[in-house]
Structure formats: C-alpha cells, structure tokens
Write a structure and sequence with these properties.
Structural class: mainly alpha
Number of strands: 0
Distance between the termini: 5 Å
Order of helices and strands: HHHHHHHHHHHHHHHHHH
Radius of gyration: 23 Å
Shape: globular
Largest sheet: none
C-alpha cells in the first residue's frame, strides 16, 4: 500500500510540476514584454520577501508530520484529533501575526526600491501579492500537513494544478487587455486562494476531525527545532535575490529570476520523484522496519541521483540557449551569464541529491539533532554572498549558494549514516563521483556533435531532444555498471506496484 500511495503522489506531483513549469514560463515572459525587466524584478523580489513572513509557520509542518506518523499507522483517531487541534490553534495565532507582519513589511519594503518605484505603487503591489500567502496560512496549511502525513499529497497536487492553470488564464487575459500590474496580480491572488480553501473543505469532510478535544502540545514540541531547519532552507533558497535587492538593482534581480525560474523548475522535477516518500519512511520508522528502510533508501538514492544527473546535465548544455530564446527582444539588460548559470546549476545539483538524506532525518523527527548544521548552512550562504556580491555580482551570490549547499549535503549524509541508517558515508561520495563522471560524458558527447546554437524554440527542442537521449543512454549504462542491484530493486518495486498494488 505504501508503494501504491507513493506512486500516486509521484505521478500527480510530476503532473503538477509540468503544469507549473509551462505556466511559469508563460507569465514572466508576458510581464517582460508588457511591463519590462524592472517590473519582473520587483515582482520576484516581493515574492521572495514574502517568504520571510511564511517562516512564522515553518517548523509546525515538519513537527506535526513527524508526530502524526505513528497515530496514523496505528489508526489512533483520538491522538490524531489532539495533534491537529494543537496545530490548528498554533496556525490561527500565526495567521494573525502574519497579517500584521505583512502590513509592516509592505510599509518598509518600498524604501528599498524608492529610486525605481513610488512608495504607494510598491506598497499596494506588496499587499496584493501577499493575499494568497495569507490565505494558505490561515485556511489551508493545517489540513495540508495531514494529507502529507497520510501519504495523500496527490489531493493537494490536484487542487494546485487547477489553481495554477486558472491563474495563468486570468493573468494572461488581463495582461493582453492592457490592465495594470496591480490588477494582474490581484487576479493571480484570487486564483491561488482556491487551493487552500478546497483543501480545508476536503479534509474536514473526509477525515471528520473533532477539533473540540484537548490539544496535545507536547506532540509538536519540536516545532521550534524544525523552525530553524526551515529558516536555513529559506536562506539557502532566497539569500541570492535578497542580497541582490539590497546591493544591486532590479535589472540584476530580473536576470537572476529568469535563471532561477528554470532552476526552480528543474529542482521541482527531482522533488516530484521523492515527494510523499517522507511519509512512507515515517511509517517504516514508526513500525521499526530497519531492513526495509535500508533497502528503500538505496532505491530512492538510485532514482534521485540518476534523475538529478539527467536533469542537470541537460541544463548545463541547454540553459544559455533557452534563456537566449526566452528573452529574445528584451534588450534592457544582458541575460546571457554563463559563469553564473553553471555555478548555480552545480549548487542545485547538490541540493537535489541531499533529498533522500534530509527526508529520512525528517521522517525520524531528528530536528533538534541536526539544527546546528542547518543554521551553519545559512550563515555560510549569507556571509560569502555578501562578501562576494560587491565585486562579482551574480557570480558572487552563486558561489555562496554552492559552498553552503555542498557543506549541508555532506553534513546530512554523515549524520544519517551515523545515527539512523548505519552505513559508510563514503557511499555518498562514491555516488557523487559517478554522477559527475556521467555529467562530464554527457557534456562532452553533446559538444562533440557541434550543434547550432538555438535562436528559436524549434531549434531548442531539437537540441534538448538530442541532449535528453544522450543523457538517458549514459545514465542507463551507468546504472548497469555501478547500480545493478539498486536497478533490479527499482524494477521489482515497479512490477509489484503494477501487478498487485502493494
């Protein structure tokens, strides 16, 4: 049953990521054409700053999921209700505080960009973009956590797909009819409010929760340790654009946002193959199934490493060509930044391969034990980015991200190997070396073909198809040579799922 649920979650999340990628490329391009790079830059910057406010609710998700795995496995409804009651009370308080912070941030933020936009323009835009963030925190996040813990993430993915498609339709129509950026973002905010409201309604009807019970605050006592993990993740994902906002200008932020749009899409593709697995590992840990944990971890590593190799090898040879096509006709700033692109891609590769280790640690609820490593990652990223941004701009912040991600990935692997899954952490180093060897072969083979640089989408699709074929063949051969046992295990898992649904 765990494998069947995992497959369903993976398929729906993969569909969501594909829809998000397609829609995510459409709107920024329309904004660039209609409003220009400065507007695209400020929208990206505001969105990232709003992530700061979301940190308030961080920690509660991981702590609640970890607390729910055992009662869900044992079908203990009373304990589930008590945990959900504690989470609901906490999130209502956070929702009110969040609203106050959003208003405060909306007042202060315009002073950071007052040379490019008027105070009221930025203030009102900030509030409009924040509507969906508040709605998610106040109405949907509590119930989303229950779906995640019960391996039913596909439900929320379905609602997100609907909201994402509706958003791109509404925003595109408004842009093409020459409405202001404020009206466009208001339309987007309304579309995205659909998801948390639908999740709220679905969970209340499906689970028949009784939130009149006494809250079990002890069950979510690790929420502050989990909070620091989320702070570190936030810093890792958002330091670059915040440093650029403070030390650079909206043109550079726009350049960063275009590359980050691509890289975020690639990262989400990899995540789609692992989302929902934390709950499966949580179920195994709750039942003390030691051998299945080791076997499944090895298979998950096999999938994540190989998907990451394919995705990022293709990105290295194709990203500049895509950006060239995507920003064609946008001449207010130079968008072709090869050094920045390659460093950021390598950094995101390390982020992707850490997924199995972070997932097992979170499933085991080891937030307090790994908190200091998370904080140190954030410090490394901030310090190096601030030091290097002055002289190296985009490249400087990318270097800071790379160093912090390499550190954190190795630290998570070592901790997991020593404390949860007893094995040598040199296995991680070996898998990294195999992936880098495969990536080097893919890049070399692609370059030897001496294909023409893409100047339109048709040429880019042709080059992408060739790069994809080279990557698949290379990784397949690598799987037969280096991962034969894991490859067989993965095939058997898939056969069992499709044959028996178990």
């Amino acid at each position: 049953m765990r494998s069947k649920k995992t497959l369903m979650n993976t398929i729906m999340d993969l569909i969501l990521q594909i829809v998000t990628i397609i829609c995510g490329f459409i709107l920024p391009r329309l904004i660039l054409e209609r409003f220009g790079s400065q507007y695209n830059g400020i929208i990206s910057s505001i969105t990232q700053f709003l992530s700061c406010a979301v940190l308030l609710r961080s920690g509660i998700g991981g702590a609640t999921r970890a607390a729910l795995y055992k009662p869900l496995a044992n079908k203990d409804k009373d304990q589930i209700n008590s945990i959900m009651k504690a989470t609901d009370l906490f999130m209502k308080k956070i929702g009110l505080i969040l609203a106050l912070l959003i208003v405060g941030a909306a007042i202060i933020y315009p002073f950071l960009v007052d040379e490019e936009f008027s105070w009221f323009f930025t203030f009102s835009l900030f509030l409009i973009i924040s509507i969906s963030t508040f709605a998610e925190s106040f109405w949907g996040i509590t119930y989303l956590i229950l779906l995640q813990a019960d391996q039913k993430l596909w439900i929320s993915s379905l609602f997100k797909i609907i909201a994402t498609i509706l958003n791109v339709i509404i925003a595109s129509v408004l842009i093409l009819n020459d409405f202001s950026i404020h009206v466009v973002k208001l339309g987007s905010a309304i579309a995205f409010c659909i998801c948390p409201i639908c999740i709220n309604i679905y969970v209340k009807r499906k689970y028949k929760l009784n939130l009149k019970v006494k809250p079990d605050n002890n069950a979510i006592s690790q929420r502050w340790d989990a909070f620091w993990h989320q702070v570190a993740t936030f810093v890792t994902n958002n330091t670059d654009i915040m440093v650029l906002t403070v030390f650079s200008n909206m043109f550079e932020v726009s350049v960063y946002s275009v590359y980050n749009m691509v890289i975020r899409s690639l990262k989400n593709i990899v995540l789609a193959f692992s989302n929902g697995l934390e709950a499966a590992f949580g179920n195994m840990i709750a039942k003390s199934e030691k051998e299945p944990i080791k076997e499944n971890l090895s298979i998950v590593e096999f999938v994540v490493y190989n998907i990451s190799t394919i995705v990022y090898a293709c990105a290295i040879v194709l990203i500049l060509q895509f950006v060239n096509v995507y920003t064609y006709g946008i001449n207010d700033v130079d968008y072709l930044r090869p050094a920045f692109a390659y460093i950021l891609l390598i950094a995101q590769f390390f982020y992707s391969i850490r997924i199995p280790y972070q997932m097992v640690i979170q499933a085991a609820g080891h937030y307090k034990q790994t908190r200091n490593g998370a904080i140190l990652e954030a410090i490394i990223n901030i310090v190096i980015s601030v030091i290097l941004v002055i002289n190296f701009g985009l490249v400087g912040v990318a270097i800071g991200t790379l160093i912090s991600m390499v550190f954190r990935t190795m630290q998570l692997s070592i901790y997991m190997c020593k404390n949860i899954v007893k094995r040598s952490y040199f296995i991680t180093i070996g898998k990294c070396m195999v992936s880098f060897l495969e990536i080097a072969i893919i890049i070399l083979a692609f370059n030897l073909l001496n294909l023409d640089f893409s100047y339109n989408y048709i040429d880019w699709i042709k080059n992408a198809t060739i790069a994809g074929i080279i990557s698949l063949v290379t990784v397949f051969v690598g799987a037969l040579v280096f991962y034969r046992k894991d490859f067989r295990g993965f095939i058997e898992k898939m056969k069992n799922v499709f044959r028996s649904g178990k």
